[in-house]
Each structure stands twice: as structure tokens, then as C-alpha cells.
Write a structure and sequence with these properties.
Length: 156
């Protein structure tokens, strides 16, 4: 178990942005500004002087759920669905006909779908062709990769 120090009540309200890279765009997470700490909802957090010591489990603090309001959107488990990469023939034909530059590569990761011009697959993958029935991503020819394989998408 490692500890995370919260100096957010000191001189710098967004110390996490500098120290840990947690903040996006200058806004601190709720536990950094003391909201969840003040409510006692960070498991195992203790205050030593002006510094909060926050225990980390697998790199993240454990937040106790509140009684009212919306559920937290903390991402708890990794995606298990395989990634499908499909080439959209209609987009290629439309680009050639109308002299456009729309991205023809479609990357389907679970419920999300991303379009790009160039895709780098940084791990094992396979090319699948089923001529008589469409596959899980409604295509007859697609590239399939495991959920943990990183992919770098580029659009231009």
C-alpha cells in the first residue's frame, strides 16, 4: 500500500496537478479539494498536521459510496470485449467521388466507435473473413485484437 499526500488546503489549491498529474485542465478531483476527505469518504485517510495521508489500492484511493445522489463514475474494471477494426468502403467511394478526406477506418472498442485515417496496432491481432454471415461488428472482413492491445489512431 502506498500513500498519497494532499496539500490542497495549503497555499496551492491544485497541488495534485503538479505532483501527481491527476488534475485535468486545472480542476482537482473531489478528494484533492477536501470534499470527500471532509466527509470521511476516503477509506483509511488520516490527517497528519496539515497533510492528508491517503492510502492507495492498486494506484487509486478507495472512495466510500454516498447515500444520496448519483453513483460515482469511477472506472472499476478493464474492458473485456475484443476490438474490431473495419474499413468503410462507402467512405472511400465518397471520398473519391466528392474529393473529400473523411476517415475510412472504423475502430470499434466495446460500445465506442472511433474513426481515423491511420491506425497502428501495437500487439497481436488477426484478420477475419466470414463470407456468408457478418461478424460481431457487422462486417464480413475485419481485424480483431484483444482488449488490452494498445492502438494509436491518427487523423489528418
Amino acid at each position: 500500500m502506498s500513500y498519497l499526500e494532499d496539500n490542497s488546503r495549503a497555499l496551492f489549491p491544485c497541488i495534485f496537478q503538479v505532483m501527481y498529474g491527476i488534475c485535468d485542465g486545472g480542476s482537482c478531483p473531489p478528494f484533492a479539494s477536501g470534499i470527500l476527505l471532509g466527509q470521511g469518504r476516503i477509506k483509511g485517510a488520516t490527517k497528519q498536521g496539515r497533510v492528508w495521508m491517503i492510502p492507495l489500492y492498486k494506484g487509486m484511493p478507495v472512495v466510500i459510496a454516498g447515500r444520496r445522489g448519483p453513483k460515482g463514475t469511477w472506472y472499476k474494471r478493464p474492458r473485456q470485449v475484443e476490438t474490431c477494426v473495419v474499413i468503410n468502403r462507402r467512405t472511400i467511394a465518397s471520398n473519391a467521388k466528392n474529393n473529400q478526406n473523411e476517415p475510412p477506418i472504423v475502430v470499434k472498442q466495446g460500445k465506442q466507435s472511433h474513426q481515423c485515417h491511420q491506425l497502428d496496432i501495437k500487439g497481436p491481432c488477426r484478420l477475419v473473413y466470414t463470407p456468408y454471415s457478418p461478424g460481431p461488428c457487422n462486417a464480413r472482413l475485419w481485424i480483431e485484437a484483444a482488449a488490452h492491445v494498445p492502438m494509436v489512431r491518427r487523423s489528418f
